């Protein structure tokens, strides 16, 4: 090979490496930046509750990306599912059951209950069997939707 061809290949390889690092940085940036809260009650994944009582627990959607930042306030109980009689309606996720899970306030804290859903519910990546208490920072996954307890 000629020296000119080797130089062109070196430059091409260097450009590909820079593009790769740029893509990695973009992916990291999009994951760590603070999500903008969407207005509850609009579009898919809407919430029925709008007021935020003092001391109430707040759940924020982490995944999927198109619903990231939506917030739901837990005052007494929140039901999660695909049909309209749920408090958190996620009708664009085919892995969520009609009545998938319920998050409720009890005297001993906040609990999540799987409602015998087909694909199950997960807390911090572990499959939920029955019910489990959750606290700030815990992540609840129903279908491909992940909610994080913020307060």
Automatic annotation (TrEMBL):
TM ranges are 7-29
Q: Keyword set for this entry?
A: Membrane, Transmembrane, Transmembrane helix
One family name in Pfam for this protein: FHA
Ranges where the FHA domain occurs = 78-128
Q: PROSITE patterns under this entry?
A: FHA_DOMAIN (PS50006)
Q: State if Phosphoprotein is listed as a keyword.
A: no
List the InterPro entries. Cell_Proc_Reg/RNA_Proc, FHA_dom, SMAD_FHA_dom_sf
Specify whether Membrane is a keyword of the entry. yes
Name of the molecule in the record: Unannotated protein
């Amino acid at each position: 090979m000629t020296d000119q061809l080797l130089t062109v290949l070196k430059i091409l390889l260097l450009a590909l490496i820079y593009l790769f690092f740029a893509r990695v940085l973009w992916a990291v940036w999009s994951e760590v930046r603070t999500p903008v809260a969407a207005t509850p009650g609009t579009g898919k994944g809407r919430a029925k509750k709008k007021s935020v009582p003092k001391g109430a627990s707040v759940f924020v959607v982490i995944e999927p990306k198109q619903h990231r930042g939506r917030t739901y306030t837990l005052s007494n109980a929140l039901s999660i599912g695909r049909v309209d009689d749920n408090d958190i309606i996620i009708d664009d996720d085919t892995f969520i059951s009609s009545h998938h899970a319920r998050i409720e306030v009890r005297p001993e804290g906040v609990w999540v209950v799987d409602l015998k859903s087909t694909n199950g519910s997960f807390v911090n990546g572990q499959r939920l069997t029955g019910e489990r208490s959750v606290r700030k920072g815990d992540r609840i996954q129903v279908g491909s939707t992940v909610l994080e307890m913020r307060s």
